[in-house]
Amino acid sequence: MTPLSGTVEAHGIGGQADLPISLELAVSGAVAALVVSFTVLVVAWRRPRYDGGAHPGRPAPAWLDAVTGSAAFRIGLRVAGMILALYTVLAAVLGENSLTNPFFGIFYVWWWVGLVFASALLGPVWRAISPVRTVNAAIARLAGGDPAEGLLRYPDRLGLWPAALGLFAFVWLELASTHPTELGSVRLWCAVYVGAMLIGGAVFGNRFYERADPFEVYSSLIARLSPWARVDGRLMVRSPLANLATIPPSPGLVGVVAVLFGSTAFDSFAESSFWVRTYQNASVSKFLLDNVALLVFCLAAGLLFGIGSALTPSRAGVPRRELPRHYAHSIVPIVLGYIVAHYLTLFIDVGPQTLARASDPLGKGWDMLGTASVEPSYWFSYHPEILATVKVLAVVIGHVVAAVAAHDRALSLLPKRDQVTGQLPLLAVMVGFTAGGLFLLFSS
């Protein structure tokens, strides 16, 4: 992650030297936890519990259901989203071309990282506040149309592939471009995003945002790990595992999780001493090396998971080539675990700093929001051992939840005779992800 001026390097604390045990022992323990979890699942979990949305959960408190289901609440969220978007545009267009411009913190920290945490706690936040959805709805109604219906039907075969490409475009700008913190570059990216979303919404209607908006797809996937869901119009409280099992096996789902997991792994790898030595001694540019490595990490994540999934047999008439998308929902907890491990300090430290700078979006010395004096505590800077432990736990918990989700789905797909051995290829991939992810996370 590109550090913002005046902040602590987000990944410079809580590293390998701060682990209360050796890295090798931490990795061995994480792998053992995954293998033991799988063994327990095989013995104690012999029938699918969540596949097909069999557990709708229990009703949320009536007042909460009434409030969150009301038109006033939905409109309020739309208005809040538009105000934040317009404020961001103000900083982007009229603000200083400097890293003190809050636009960079809003873009890289609040939007990219904060959206994940908010979605995991509250549900599909971006769908509720998305300014491109709001603008599209306003244009459609002014034209006498229905924003839910576009001019054409969205092609099912495209699935989530446009969102995967959009997510890759974001991580490319962040991790591999030459000007990730140049105001013009980030403004151009946002302009292309908004233009593509408005054109797509006008042509295909709201289904386009569900499938092609990278931030809505990302937010909605992470939201499946929240305890909230609307079932037949009623707000329910239910197990995140039950929510997770309702992710449709759409085309492109593997691509989305591969980009999210692979890019986070590359972000860790890019900070390693090995990679620093590599591009310093290379005969080609760092830009070229970063681009190739980012693509390789994303492709490798998708291919390894795809191969591990495709090697499992199927009894449900699902073609082997489609098996990866049926298991891909299990990677979402891993993605969330790595986001927590990798970006927690960035969000905690740079998030408040962005709030302080947002009070002066044009660099005029203002205090419009009354937050100019807000300062980060840098608590984890003084407790790196705790941060290192949190990182390991986030990764391990993410993989254990993933193993549970994959096992539950496997019981629906595997023939009876293969319900143990058939899961081994996917288990091997997850063990590799666990060990490799922890080594990369603590390699800097």
Automatic annotation (TrEMBL):
The keyword Acyltransferase does not apply. The chain crosses the membrane at residues 25-45, 75-94, 106-126, 158-176, 188-209, 253-276, 288-307, 327-348, 386-406, 426-443. Keywords: Membrane, Transmembrane, Transmembrane helix. This is Fenitrothion hydrolase. The lineage of its organism: Bacteria, Bacillati, Actinomycetota, Actinomycetes, Propionibacteriales.
